[in-house]
Specification:
The protein is of the alpha/beta class and 181 residues long. 39% of the residues lie in helices and 22% in strands. It has a single domain, classed as Rossmann fold (3-Layer(aba) Sandwich). The protein has a 5-stranded parallel β-sheet with strand order 3-2-4-5-6, sandwiched between helices. Strands 1-7 form a two-stranded parallel ribbon.
Length: 181
């Protein structure tokens, strides 16, 4: 581990995760805008995406942005771009909007579909997260909980991550020191 502050691991209980997913599903379901597809952002958005897909009875696609395998996510994203250009509304789901890097990247890639079809960015693309960071460089349309990374340095451990050892979780947390302060 590095010389940064130790990670404050904040485990999210399954029941709390389930309540967050149910709340997020309700928020989306009650809105006027409805997606044609849920797009789970890998890794962290895949599990919430599946739950939301089932709750809303909307098909799910997945993009493994976190794998960092050259070209892999981009090839899949291009297919999503084509679907969007054809008029499909997409709800991208992630566990947390932390720095905003993933969301900004995906918005940039998805913006290419505007030139490929009649779609407007405001009409057919939304982002949903369980936890949103108000000091993030990206905004999302739907969130359940709001934090401020300038003061809140907890490293959230979702139920699917709880199988990792505390040492491995701490290594992942300190790999992004600006989150921990």
């Amino acid at each position: 581990m590095s010389d940064t502050a130790p990670a404050d691991l904040s485990y999210i209980a399954y029941e709390d995760f389930l309540a967050m997913v149910q709340k997020l599903s309700q928020i989306v379901a009650q809105g006027a805008w409805q997606p044609d597809f849920i797009v789970g952002i890998g890794r962290g958005g895949l599990v919430p995406g599946v739950y939301i897909s089932h709750a809303l009875q909307i098909p799910m696609l997945s993009i493994d942005h976190s794998s960092k395998v050259a070209g892999f996510a981009d090839n899949l994203l291009h297919k999503v771009v084509q679907m969007r250009a054809a008029g499909s509304r997409m709800l991208f789901v992630d566990d947390i909007n932390d720095s905003g890097g993933t969301i900004n990247y995906l918005r940039k890639v998805m913006a290419s579909s505007v030139s490929e079809g009649p779609a407007s960015p405001d009409d057919d693309l939304r982002f949903a997260v369980l936890i949103d960071n108000k000091s993030s460089q990206a905004r999302v349309e739907y969130a359940v909980e709001m934090i401020d990374r300038t003061t809140d340095k907890r490293w959230f451990v979702f139920p699917w991550e709880a199988v990792m050892t505390a040492d491995r979780l701490a290594e992942e947390a300190v790999a992004v020191p600006e989150r921990l302060g």
